[in-house]
Amino acid sequence: MIDYDNIKPAHRVVINSSILYVKMIISVIIVFFSTRLVLGALGADDYGLYNLVAGVIAMLSFLKSAIAGSTQRYLSYYQGKNDLELQKKIFINSVYLHIAIGVGLVIILETVGLFLFDIEGLLRIDPDKIWEAKTIYHFMSATMFFTILSVPFSGTMNAHENLLGIAIIELIEVVLRLAIALALFFLVKSGKLIFYGLLTASITVVTCIISAIYCKIKYPECESFFDKKYVQLPLLKELSSFAGWTLMGSFSGVAKSQGIAIVLNHFMGTIANAAYGITNQVVGQLNYFTTTMFRAFNPQIMKTEGADQREKMVHLSMIGCKFGFFLLAFIAIPCLFEMPALLDIWLKEVPDYTVMFCTMVLIATMVTQLTAGMQSAIMASGRIKRYMILVSSTKLLTLPTAYFLMKAGYQVICVFWGYIFFEAIAGIVILYLSKIEVNLKINLFIKRVLLKESIPVLLTAIFCYALTKTINFELRWLITIPSGMIFFVIMAYLAGLCEDEKEIIDSMIKKFIKKG
Predict the structure, then answer these.
(1) Helix 270-286 with 233-268: angle, nearest 10 deg
(2) Full-model pTM
(3) Which one, of 310, 322, 321, 302, lies nearest residue 161 by Cα?
(4) DSSP 505
């Protein structure tokens, strides 16, 4: 295992990013193959039904990411101040907080479940499938407790920038999902949907136990999970307040995504849910380039703020915006032009609307990434109340807009244009709040980030469009996608990077060549 404590911060970011990218490549291959097996074994209707029910649960699973961000923020912040005792207090109070939230959430889910499937017209599910849908719902609800309980452990590993440990645990989860998919496709002859729901839910329990054991052995602040002498009501209140406001932001994203799934189901049925479920798989895996970078970057942003280096923290956040966007656009833009071919290769039968859903949601995700680094900056400052209220409210407008557009008889593509529109408005709000909360100079952001990002994106889009109009044969994507990616890298370096950013890249390349 890598000794992170003796590695310079800049090198740590590079090492962690490299580890997670290797893990990502392995995960993407396994996840895409698993999804194909599961879709083939269950069929589009049952796969859509599973995504619908799991999506209802996921509307509350945002608690995990929200409070994980809260725990990591406090642990990273006080690592910047070198305060081990306070780290112990934060960890143990966080464990107690998550136990309470987990129990409360299970009670809420089971109460809601008593009515969810019996309200006429709410969910379009075949009456013969209601029992299976309810059973899957109970599986998801029961394991939600372990999802929430695992948060302090993943937050601790993130705060220590030990993304190798996280990557290993996540790979174990992915491999287990592949094993389930193989068993479902080759071994299970009946009751496939129940089998898939039960074993998929049980993976959460396994990964939670592994994370807890690892943290107890590895980190001094995790030596005791339940030491009551460290429990302090003021600290619990502070953690709860920060996490509560963070929940609002996470809720807006999940409610927007899964709420759209319910709207699609209400107006179009489970086939649309199958297409939307595949879309989330595709976009989630492509977006992993960016989320990987921020997992390596965020602890440094938090620690820099904890060390009272505000100007450096804002500078790091702007770099995060640019590099995060580039990492997504690098692969997303070529894939946008070859989406039908890629889906045909991946899936035996592509559900209706899948190509359009994937294209629109991927564009919306790229818009979101334009200001992702400034979200980290505001989180680091701790002043998140105004940010969460305004940004969350803006993003949630996507949901009623989607409902009324479908109700009025508009084409489903209009729902996703609304999705993109509100993501853009939310980005403008984020920049305004960054100016207020962390002293961001918006003119500098436009000059160093937005304008620099637009040039390689525009040129690469023109290049890929020209290729698709010039070349026409069955395996064209083997030329267009690699060519588009190479072209984007060149344009990003020449026109997208500022001089100081080029120096960082050049330095990393020189060090890599010397070591090689």
Answers:
(1) 130
(2) 0.71
(3) 302
(4) H
Type and span of the H or E element at 11 = helix 9-80
Q: What is the pLDDT of residue 436?
A: 92
User: Which among 424, 444, 447 is positioned nearest to 435, based on CA atoms?
Assistant: 444
Token pair recorded at residue 69: 């961000």
pLDDT confidence bin for 464, thresholds 50/70/90: very high
Cα–Cα distances in angstroms (integers) from residue 35 to residues 55, 180, 200, 206, in the given order: 16, 11, 13, 21
Q: What is the pLDDT confidence band of residue 363, given thresholds at 50, 70 and 90?
A: very high
Handedness of CA 281, 284, 287, 288 (dihedral sign): negative
Reply yes or no on whether the pLDDT at 455 is more than 90.
yes
Task: Find out whether 37 and 184 touch, Cβ atoms under 8 Å.
Answer: yes
Contacts of 448 (CB under 8 A, 6+ apart): 318, 322, 498
- SS3 label, residue 503: helix
All residues at 6 or more sequence positions from 443 whose CB lies less than 8 Å from its CB, including other chains: none
CB atoms within 10 A of CB 486: 13
The answer to whether the CB of 251 falls within 8 A of the CB of 62 is yes
Cα(225)–Cα(12) distance, integer angstroms: 28
54, 282 Cβ separation under 8 angstroms: no
What number is the average pLDDT over the span 157-173? 81
- Under 8 Å CB-to-CB from 352, ≥6 apart: which residues? 271, 272, 275
Give yes or no for a contact between 39 and 193, defined as CB atoms under 8 angstroms apart: no
How many helices and strands, by DSSP H and E, does the chain display?
Answer: 20, 0
Percent of the chain predicted with pLDDT > 70: 83
Report how far residue 222's alpha carbon sits from residue 154's, in angstroms, rounded to the nearest whole number.
Answer: 12
| Beta carbons of 435 and 442 less than 8 angstroms apart | yes
Within its chain, how far is the Cα of 91 from the centroid? Answer: 23
pLDDT by residue (tens digit) across 5-31? Answer: 555 444 555 566 666 667 767 777 777
CB atoms near residue 143 (< 10 Å): 21
Residues contacting residue 392 through CB under 8 Å, at least 6 positions apart:
248, 249, 251, 252
Joined together, the tokens standing for residue 456 give: 């390689």
